Amino acid sequence: MKIWTFTLALLGLFAGPLTAETLPTIRAAVLKVGTVNWELATIVENGLDRKYGFQLSVMPYADNGATRIAVEGGEADMAVADWIWVARQRAAGKGYVFVPYSKAVGGVMVPQDSTATTLKDLVGGKVGIAGGPLDKSWLILRAYAQHEYGVDLKSETEQVFGAPPLIFKTGLKGDYAGVINFWHFTAKLKAAGMRQLISVQDAGQALGLDTDTPLLGYYFKDSFLDQHPELAQGFYNASREAKEMLETNPTAWEPIRPLMRVKTEAQFDQLKQDWIAGIPKRAPMDAEAAGKMLALMHNLGGEALVGEAKTVPAGLFADVK
Questions:
Q1: Is 99 in contact with 217 (CB distance < 8 Å)?
Q2: Can you spell out the DSSP letters for 251-318?
Q3: Which of 53, 226, 270, 292 is deepest in the core (most CB within 10 A)?
Q4: How is 148-175 classified by DSSP, letter by letter?
Q5: How many CB atoms lie within 10 A of CB 43?
Q6: Would you say 104 and 277 are in contact if contact means Cβ atoms under 8 Å apart?
Q7: Is residue 1 part of a domain?
């Protein structure tokens, strides 16, 4: 696969020329259309990488598998994943370290004219699910339905698993009693008039999980951070300042609007609102809260989901604050 690196200069977003100063470079492997680009673009647009002692190079790939291969093979220094996946890799011997990014999650969306008020109302219907049977949102919602209503969604509904864009499109057509998708597709379904039955966050809270714990983050190799011990905190500082800009300054969204690929103002507004709602508190990762979530994922998905990571591996979370 041919790998190409882009900077925001190619998009007409970079505000000034590169300086001659020598800074360590962080090569970020990301999805071409991934929402993480919004934050990374804001970092580069506002020179936050240089402010915090590094140069950010964003490398777009076609799928998550390619970003992971890039990091493993040394073609990139960082990619994005949920920490449960990163924990699985670390438990298997890969020295990956997690830096928190977002707590944004999706939920169950139903057609506007649906009479459903709770998950038990989906019994006997067809549910469209982005991902596969081990999708973490689906597992949490299944556990919640069992806990709250004694309903086994797996046996009492028909599931259709598919890629997020496909589930989004077929969901808009009213093909399902309920749709479970990633947060940004959920935001677009809201903008199109569909109704959220329950969020994964609310379901997790009902199960006793601390849903302020970020699920998504950036991961680096131990070896990279050992060579540049200051970069984890520097990158986290830049990430937090970009979040603050996007949360408090509406004009900060204008330069990245082309990356959002919105078709309506309603989509633009809903994506902004839900992205901001996904900003976690500035704090170190809570290993105890993460341990509770990992235990639930192990109970629900077993080793097929978490591998050997039955507990949070030592050194998983970067020491950033």
A1: yes
A2: GGGGGGHHHHT-SSHHHHHHHHHHHHHTPPPSS---HHHHHHHHHHHHHHHTHHHHTT-SSPPTT-B-
A3: 270
A4: HH---HHHHSEEEEE-HHHHHHHHHTT-
A5: 26
A6: yes
A7: no
Per-residue pLDDT of the chain (321 residues), as tens digits, is 333 334 443 344 444 444 436 899 999 999 999 999 999 999 999 999 999 999 999 999 999 999 999 999 999 999 999 999 999 999 999 999 999 999 999 999 999 999 999 999 999 999 999 999 999 999 999 999 999 999 999 999 999 999 999 999 999 999 999 999 999 999 999 999 999 999 999 999 999 999 899 999 999 999 999 999 999 999 999 999 999 999 999 999 999 999 999 999 999 999 999 999 999 999 999 999 999 999 999 999 999 999 999 999 999 999 999
Residue in 223, 228, 222, 269 with CA at minimum distance from that of residue 250: 269
Same domain, 117 and 256: no
Secondary structure letter of residue 56 according to DSSP: E
Written as six digits, the tokens of 47 are 């020179």
Tell me the CA distances in angstroms from 162 to 19, 69, 245, 301, one per residue in order. 45, 23, 35, 19
Q: Please tell me whether residues 131 and 251 are part of one structural domain.
A: no
Q: Pick from 79, 99, 75, 81: which is nearest to 5 by CA?
A: 75
* Residue 311 burial class via C-beta count within 10 angstroms: exposed 0-12, middle 13-18, buried 19 and up: middle
- Asked whether residue 90 falls in the same domain as residue 219, the answer is yes
- Give the domain CATH number at 120: 3.40.190.10
For the chain, counts of helices (H) and of strands (E): 15, 10
Co-location of 174 and 148 in the same domain: yes
275 near 41, Cβ under 8 Å?
no
* Total domain count, the chain: 2
Q: Which amino acid is at 282?
A: R
Q: Is 131 buried (19+), middle (13-18) or exposed (0-12) by CB count in 10 A?
A: middle
Distance CA 67, CA 201 (A): 27
**pLDDT score at 10:** 38
**49 domain residue, yes or no:** yes
